[in-house]
Amino acid sequence: MLEFAPIFQRVDASGLRVHLAQAQGKWLPDFGRNTEVKTETLALFAKLLLVQPSLLIKNSELDLQIENGPLRSLNLDSLLLENAQDDHQLSGDFWMPALGQESRLSFVAQSKGALNDLQNAEIPFYLKLDRLGTQLF
């Protein structure tokens, strides 16, 4: 299926709002009442993103519904996914409204090699925190 997938040199998006919900330790998009979306569809969409050379998302929001916990919101200043064959890097800058705009966080996740099983992949992850207090916990 992916051999006929469109490949763009660069994809830019802004103003997105995504809601992810944690269920049994896994994070999946929350489609509300629409339960028709299957895991296979999400896996195909993830593979489609991983063949794009560059995907940039700016000025967007991410809501994380923790299983049996509070909703956490993130304001994404930027999120960049870069792919080159089997090398992938996801990086970004964000802040948490509950902590104020001063609570800047930056991260980078890198993977070398094929990502055949995203849910069980081990990916090095680096996080930089500025002015973060105990409010996160």
Feature tags:
single chain; eight-stranded mixed beta sheet; 9% helix; 8 strands; 137 residues; globular; mainly beta
Distance separating the two termini: 43 Å
Query: What is the H/E string?
Result: EEEHEEEEE
Percent helix, as a range, is under 10%
Secondary structure tally: strands: 8
Helix count, per DSSP? 1
Tell me the overall shape. Answer: globular
What is the arithmetic mean of pLDDT?
Answer: 81
User: Over all CA atoms, what is the radius of gyration?
Assistant: 16 Å
What's the oligomerization state?
A: single chain
Q: Could you explain the architecture of this structure?
A:
With 137 residues, the protein is mainly β. It contains one helix and eight strands, in the order βββαβββββ. Strands 1, 2, 3, 4, 5, 6, 7 and 8 form an eight-stranded mixed beta sheet that branches. The longest helix is centred in the first third of the chain and has 12 residues, at 39-50. It is globular, with a radius of gyration of 16 Å.
